[in-house]
UniProtKB/TrEMBL annotation, chain A:
Protein name: Succinate dehydrogenase iron-sulfur subunit
Chain ranges of the 2Fe-2S ferredoxin-type domain: 1-91
Keywords: 2Fe-2S, 3Fe-4S, 4Fe-4S, Iron, Iron-sulfur, Metal-binding, Oxidoreductase, Tricarboxylic acid cycle
EC number(s) recorded for this UniProt protein: 1.3.5.1
Family the entry assigns: Belongs to the succinate dehydrogenase/fumarate reductase iron-sulfur protein family.
Cofactors, names only: [3Fe-4S] cluster; [2Fe-2S] cluster; [4Fe-4S] cluster
Keyword Repeat recorded: no
InterPro entries: 2Fe-2S_ferredoxin-like_sf (IPR036010), 2Fe-2S_ferredoxin-type (IPR001041), 4Fe4S_Fe-S-bd (IPR017896), 4Fe4S_Fe_S_CS (IPR017900), Beta-grasp_dom_sf (IPR012675), Helical_ferredxn (IPR009051), SDH/FRD_Iron-Sulfur (IPR050573), Succ_DH/fum_Rdtase_Fe-S (IPR004489)
A Pfam short name: Fer4_10
Lineage: Bacteria, Thermotogati, Deinococcota, Deinococci, Thermales
Catalysed reactions, as listed in the record: a quinone + succinate = fumarate + a quinol
Organism: Thermus tengchongensis
Length: 232, 577
C-alpha cells in the first residue's frame, strides 16, 4: 500500500521553526512506523534524524507523537493507522533535531526521586525473602522503559516543566511499595513538594500513552495516598 | 574537548554498568561513554533468566553448572573460566537481589528459577530449574537495577558519544576518541584504564534479535589496530526468532513446556536430542530447525519456518511467566500464543567470540596471554572464553555480571597504582579525517544498499550451516564490499545529530567484524558447537581443540595464531543430549 507520511521536521542549523515534510512510502500493513522512517532515511532523505535501538518496544528510544498520540514507532503498525500517518516529536521537551528531543530534563526528574533501593540494613548471606504477593505489589512500575511517552503526554508537564512527571512518579512507586525498601520518607520530600505528585490532575493521558500498559494514573494516586497516610 | 577519568567504560549495557559500579565501589573515578542513553542498551532485551546453582527449586551444584557450560561450549570453553563463573554467578545473583532486582519469587520467598536449554542435573540426566528470572524481562530488570545503582553512586555518563578510536601507544592503552552526536565534536578521553563493554554485532546478519545499534564498533577498532579477535567463527543463532522479523522469543518458553513442531505437527526435537528434546542447546536446535525446513517439513506458504507450540500450557502460565513474548507475537504477527502456535525461525543472536581477555578482563594480544596494559573488555564484546563454541541460554547475563565485576575491580586497582600517560601524538586527526572523508565524499555508493548486501550475503553464506565453497564466496564478497565502502557518500553534511554519518561509520565496523568471522570460519576445518561445516561434519579434537586468534593484515588478508584450550575437570567427550 502507498502511505503518505507527514513528519514535523526541524534543523537547528537552518530552520527558525519546525515545518511539515511529506513523503510517499510504499508499505506493508504489518510494517512498523519505524520501518517507514527507515525507508525515508535510507531511500529518500538521509538527513532525517530520529532515535531507535532495539526495534521491538523494549529500549524506549523511539517514543513519538504518531497520529496525535504518544507511541513507540517500533510498536505501532501501519495497519492500525491507515494510509496517512503524521509523526512529530514528543511534546514538552526541547526539540534538538527532527524527532530527537533533549532527554536531560526527563532524566533529571528520574534522579530526583532517588530511583534505587534504599536499605542500609546489612543484607543476609542469601537473598532477602519476599513473598510472591509482596513482589506483585510493585510489579507495574518495574515494567517501565523510561521512554517518556507518559510524561510528554501530560498537560501539566507541558505548561510546567518543573513537574516531576508521571514516569518519575512511577519509578518512585516501584520502590515505595517494595517490601525491601526503607527510603520512602526520603522520596516523599521531592514527591510531596510543589513540583511533585500534587500537580497531577488525573487527565489519564499518561495511562493511555504508556506502551507497557502500566496504569500510570493509578500508581500516581497510590503515591499521593501513601504520602497522606504517612502524615498520620 | 578533553576529559580525564581514572577508569573509562565503553558501553552502558549490563557488562558496562556492572564494570562501572564495581570500579566505583573500589573508589575509582569512573565514567561511562555510551553511544545510546543508559537503559537503551540491548541487555534490556534479554528475557528468560540468569542461570545460577542457587538450588531454590531443586538440588543443584555449581559443578553441574560448570559441566553444562563446558559441554554446551563443545569443550572449547576454558575450564578455568567456567569454574570461576559457575561459582561466582551464585554470589552475583544474590548481590543483584540485594541491589533491589525484582526477581520472581517462590512461595517460600526465595528467588524463583526455571528450566533452560542445556542446563541439567546430575551431569546431563534431566533439565534442572536453574534460571533465576523476573517474568520474561530478566535482562530489563538487570539493566534497570544496575543503572539505578550507577545513579546512586553518581557515576559520570557521556551519553550518545560514539567511540571512534582507542589510543594505544607503545602497546599501552592511554585513552579514547569519541564523536559527540549532539554537536559533531570530537572529544579526547584520557584514562588509566579503559574497559570495552560495547556488546555484540548481530547486525552483520539480515535476521537478528540484535538492536540496530549492535555493530561491533570496538571489536573492529581494535582489530584494525592489529589486536586479535578470538573465536569469531562461533556465532550463535537463537532457535526461536519471531518469523520473519527475528525478534527474540525466550528459550524460557520451552523451559515452561513449549514444544517445537514441524508442518506434520511432529515434535521433531525427539529425533535430534532424545533425552532433553526441546531443551537441547541452541546450536543443536537451530540446526534441527534448518534441517526440518530443508527436508520439506517447514511451515507456511514458503515452507521456510517451524512452529513454537504453547497452546497446551495453562493460560495463566503464558500470561504470567511469558507476558512480553506473548505481546510480541500478538502485536507483530497477530498470533495469539494461547490459541495457536507461533511461527519461528533461528535468528542471529550472540557472538561467542570477541576481544580476548584473561579471567580478570585484561585484554591480551597473543597466544602467550601477553596483556595490553590498561585495556580491559567484558560481556559480549569480550571472549574470556566462557562460552566456547556455543553459549548456553542465561549464561550471557551471568557472564556480564561476573566478568563485568571482575574487570571493574581489576581496572580500579590497576588505576590506583597508575599515572595518566603523556600522549605523544595528536590522536583526533585520524578520526577527523575518516569523518570528513565520508561527509565530503561524492561517491555513488549508499550505506543502506551496501549494508543490505552484507546482511543478505552473510545470511546466505556464513550462518547456521557453512561450507568451504560458500565461505570462499563470502570472502570475495566482503573484499568487494570493502572496496565499494570507500565510495560511500551521505546526504547529511550537518554537525548536530548526524545519525546518517553514524550509520556510515557503523557499516565500516560491520565489514571488519564480518571479515574476521568469515576468514576464521573458512580456516577452521571441523564442526564444533555453533560452527557447522558441512564439508567437515565431525569435531576434530586432534587438530582443532584450540582457540583461533585472527589478526588483520590488510583488507581481505587475515593471519591466524592459536591459543590452547584450558582443560581440567572434564575430558572432551562426544556431545549428545
Amino acid at each position: 500500500m502507498q502511505v503518505t507520511l507527514k513528519i514535523l521536521r526541524f534543523d537547528p542549523a537552518k530552520d527558525q521553526k519546525p515545518t511539515w515534510h511529506t513523503y510517499q512510502v510504499e508499505a506493508e500493513p504489518w510494517d512498523r512506523v519505524l520501518d517507514l522512517l527507515h525507508k525515508v532515511k535510507w531511500d529518500q532523505d538521509g538527513t532525517l534524524a530520529f532515535r531507535r535501538s532495539c526495534g521491538h518496544g523494549i529500549c524506549g528510544s523511539d517514543a513519538m507523537l504518531i497520529n496525535g498520540r504518544n507511541r513507540l514507532a517500533c510498536k505501532t503498525l501501519v495497519k492500525d493507522l491507515g494510509n496517512v500517518i503524521t509523526v512529530e516529536p514528543i511534546r514538552g521537551l526541547p526539540v534538538e533535531k527532527d524527532l530527537i528531543v533533549d532527554m536531560e530534563p526527563f532524566f533529571a526528574a528520574y534522579r530526583a526521586v532517588k530511583p534505587y533501593l534504599i536499605n542500609d540494613e546489612p543484607p543476609p548471606a542469601r537473598e532477602r525473602l519476599q513473598s510472591p504477593e509482596e513482589r506483585e505489589r510493585f510489579d507495574h512500575g518495574t515494567k517501565c522503559i523510561l521512554c517518556a511517552s507518559c510524561t510528554t503526554s501530560c498537560p501539566v508537564f507541558w505548561v510546567n516543566g518543573a513537574y516531576l512527571g508521571p514516569a518519575a512518579i512511577v519509578q518512585a512507586h516501584r520502590f515505595i511499595f517494595d517490601s525491601r525498601d526503607r527510603g520512602k520518607r526520603e522520596r516523599f520530600k521531592a514527591l510531596g513538594s510543589g513540583s511533585g505528585v500534587w500537580r497531577c490532575r488525573t487527565a489519564y493521558n499518561c495511562t493511555e500513552a504508556c506502551p507497557r500498559e502500566i496504569p500510570v494514573t493509578q500508581l500516581i494516586e497510590e503515591v499521593k495516598r501513601a504520602i497522606l497516610f504517612d502524615r498520620f | 574537548m578533553a576529559h580525564r577519568h581514572e577508569v573509562i567504560v565503553v558501553g552502558a549495557g549490563g557488562a558496562g554498568l556492572a564494570t562501572a559500579l564495581y570500579a566505583a565501589r573500589e573508589g575509582a573515578d569512573v565514567a561511562v561513554v555510551t553511544k545510546l542513553y543508559p537503559t537503551r542498551s540491548h541487555t534490556g532485551a534479554a528475557q528468560g533468566g540468569i542461570g545460577a546453582a542457587l538450588g531454590n527449586v531443586e538440588e543443584d551444584h555449581w559443578e553441574w553448572h560448570m559441566f553444562d557450560t563446558v559441554k554446551g561450549g563443545d569443550y572449547l570453553t576454558d575450564q578455568d573460566a567456567a569454574e570461576v563463573f559457575a561459582k561466582e554467578v551464585i554470589e552475583a545473583v544474590l548481590e543483584l537481589e540485594h541491589m533491589g532486582l525484582p526477581f520472581d519469587r517462590l512461595p517460600s520467598g526465595k528467588i524463583a528459577q526455571r528450566r533452560f536449554g542445556g542446563h541439567t542435573k546430575d551431569w546431563g540426566k534431566a533439565p534442572v530449574h536453574r534460571a533465576a528470572h523476573a517474568a520474561d524481562r530478566t535482562g530489563h530488570m538487570i539493566l534497570q537495577t544496575l543503572y539505578q545503582q550507577c545513579v546512586k553512586h553518581n557515576i559520570t555518563f557521556y551519553n550518545e558519544f560514539h567511540v571512534t578510536d582507542v589510543i594505544l601507544e607503545d602497546g599501552v592503552a592511554k585513552g579514547l576518541v569519541a564523536y559527540e552526536l549532539a554537536t559533531g565534536e570530537l572529544h579526547l578521553f584520557q584514562a588509566k584504564a579503559i574497559v570495552i563493554a560495547s556488546g555484540g554485532f548481530g547486525r552483520i546478519y539480515k535476521v537478528t534479535s540484535n538492536a540496530y545499534t549492535l555493530t561491533g564498533d570496538l571489536q573492529a577498532i581494535l582489530y584494525r589496530k592489529g589486536l586479535p579477535l578470538e573465536d569469531m567463527e562461533f556465532y550463535q543463532f537463537h532457535p526461536t526468532g519471531l518469523y520473519p522479523l527475528g525478534i527474540l522469543l525466550t528459550e524460557g518458553a520451552r523451559g515452561e513446556g513449549g514444544i517445537l513442531r514441524n508442518a506434520l505437527g511432529e515434535r521433531f526435537m525427539e529425533r535430534y536430542a532424545p533425552t532433553i528434546k526441546d531443551l537441547a542447546p541452541r546450536d543443536m536446535v537451530a540446526r534441527a530447525m534448518y534441517l526440518e525446513v530443508r527436508e520439506g517439513r517447514g511451515v507456511g506458504p514458503k515452507k521456510d519456518h517451524v512452529l513454537l507450540d504453547l497452546t497446551h500450557l495453562p493460560p495463566e502460565v503464558i500470561e504470567k511467566k511469558l507476558p512480553d513474548i506473548t505481546e510480541f507475537s500478538r502485536i507483530y504477527l497477530g498470533v495469539d500464543p494461547l490459541k495457536e502456535p507461533v511461527p519461528v525461525m533461528p535468528t542471529a543472536h550472540y557472538a561467542m567470540g570477541g576481544i580476548p581477555t584473561t579471567l580478570w578482563g585484561q585484554v591480551i594480544r597473543d597466544e602467550n596471554n601477553t596483556v595490553v596494559p590498561g585495556l580491559y573488555a567484558a560481556g559480549e564484546a569480550a571472549c574470556v572464553s566462557l562460552h566456547g563454541a556455543n553459549r548456553l541460554g542465561t549464561n550471557s547475563l551471568g557472564d556480564l555480571v561476573v566478568f563485568g565485576r571482575r574487570a571493574g575491580i581489576h581496572a580500579a586497582r590497576f588505576a590506583k597504582d597508575a599515572d595518566y600517560h603523556e600522549l605523544k601524538a595528536d590522536h583526533l586527526g585520524e578520526s577527523r579525517e575518516r569523518i570528513e572523508r565520508i561527509k565530503n565524499s561524492t561517491g555513488k555508493e549508499k550505506v543502506a544498499v551496501l549494508r543490505a548486501e552484507l546482511q543478505q550475503s552473510m545470511m546466505d553464506h556464513a550462518s547456521v550451516f557453512r561450507t568451504g565453497e560458500l565461505l570462499t564466496k563470502q570472502v570475495d564478497i566482503l573484499k568487494e564490499l570493502m572496496d565499494r565502502y570507500r565510495h560511500i557518500s551521505i546526504d547529511d553534511k550537518g554537525e548536530a545529530y548526524n545519525t546518517e554519518l553514524v550509520e556510515a561509520l557503523e557499516l565500516g565496523y560491520l565489514l571488519e567484524v564480518s571479515e574476521a568471522l568469515v576468514h576464521s570460519a573458512l580456516n577452521r576445518t571441523e564442526s564444533r558447537g555453533a560452527h557447522a561445516r558441512e564439508d567437515y561434519p565431525e569435531r576434530d579434537d586432534a587438530n582443532w581443540l584450540k582457540h583461533t586468534l585472527a589478526y588483520k593484515v590488510a583488507d581481505g588478508k587475515v593471519t591466524f595464531r592459536y591459543k590452547p584450550v584450558v582443560l581440567g575437570r572434564f575430558e572432551p567427550k562426544a556431545r549428545t543430549y
